[in-house]
Amino acid sequence: MAIFFSQEISDKWIILRDEEHRHAFKSMRKKTGDQIEITDGQGNLFECLVHEITKKHLSAKIIRTQSSERTFELSIGVAVTKNLSRLEWFVEKGAEMGVKKIVPIKYKYGEKPSIRKERLEKIALSAMKQSRQYFVPEIADIQSIEEFLPTVVEENSFYAEIGDQVPLFSNTLQERDIPASCLVLIGPEGHFSSEEISLFETYKLQAVSLGKTILRVETAATVAAAIYTGMMK
């Protein structure tokens, strides 16, 4: 059954508008009395009955609510890519795997920073619904690494590095009994600058390896997410 999304919820009623309304009414051909599932993207799933359909909205009555809590909280700080479709691809995959927050980061040797936040949010929402999850990832505003690091609250924070002397991410997680909250930074294809690595050391981030091969930005972000979420599920 398709899942719809709305945050217009009051007491026993939910309203679908715009794209969600068109999807339910025109694509799925829902009608009065049909049962539908709606999530608020915050861990709640509502089983509803369609009450009314107009040209501008669909109203549904809640008959049952199922609430869930996050079992892990993974944030990925990822370099902005020159081809934005590559960043969009990661947002989709990250949402499917249950990433909590995606932060587009400006690095010294990265591409000229530019994102389409609204589009990324739509991609994340669509991937959440398609994978039948009830938490939509937060897409943060683009920011420099200098702006971002002082806001980090995760004790278990890492940055992806290359080299035989760098411990594998999976091994590091197991040594720490797999933390429930985690941040991983993925750098640009031009790599981190020496100043950025010094900054990581100041904020006590640990270097980890994602494997022996050199990965593209979106691949590295996806591999990091897959390692962590795979070990948590």
Question: Can you give a write-up of this model?
Answer:
The chain is of the alpha/beta class and 233 residues long. The chain folds into two domains: 3-67, Beta Barrel (Ribosomal Protein L25, Chain P); 73-232, Alpha/beta knot (3-Layer(aba) Sandwich), CATH 3.40.1280.10. It is 32% helix and 28% strand. It contains seven helices and 13 strands. It has helices spanning 18-27, 84-97, 117-130, 145-148, 169-175, 194-202, 217-232; strands at 3-5, 9-10, 13-17, 35-39, 44-53, 57-67, 73-79, 101-106, 138-139, 143-144, 157-160, 181-186, 206-208. Strands 7, 8, 9, 10, 11, 12 and 13 form a seven-stranded parallel beta sheet that branches. The two termini are 23 Å apart. 33% of the residues are buried. The model has no long low-confidence stretch (mean pLDDT 93).
